Amino acid sequence: MAPQADDKRQAAREVIDILHEISTLLNTDLDRTELSLCVSLIENGVNPDALATVIKDLRKEASLTPRGLANDPEIPE
Question: Which PANTHER family does the annotation name (predicted)?
Fold first, then answer.
């Protein structure tokens, strides 16, 4: 592999590492893979606010499924 490609990959890893640290501080519960996907979507023109809204909505829906409800400590079994 060309040295430039290695440098770009290393730089991308460093960016994701930094974003993951910020994400952890903000309690977003996004892992490195999810952050990478979000960055790729934003780089390809997805509106960041719309992406955040979709993620929130999907999490809300997932918490309302029977599986999500079973994992909710506030709901008695």
Answer: MITOTIC-SPINDLE ORGANIZING PROTEIN 1
Indicate if 2 and 30 belong to the same structural domain: yes
The owner of tokens 């960055």 is 39
Amino acid residing at 18: I
Is the C-alpha dihedral spanning 12, 15, 20, 23 positive or negative?
Answer: negative
56 and 29 within one domain: no
Residue 32 and residue 58 in one domain: no
Concatenated DSSP letters for 19-52? HHHHHHHTT----HHHHHHHHHHHHTT--HHHHH
As for how many domains the chain has, the answer is 2
pLDDT digits (tens, 9 = 90+) for 53-64: 999 999 999 888
Residue 77's pLDDT is what? 46
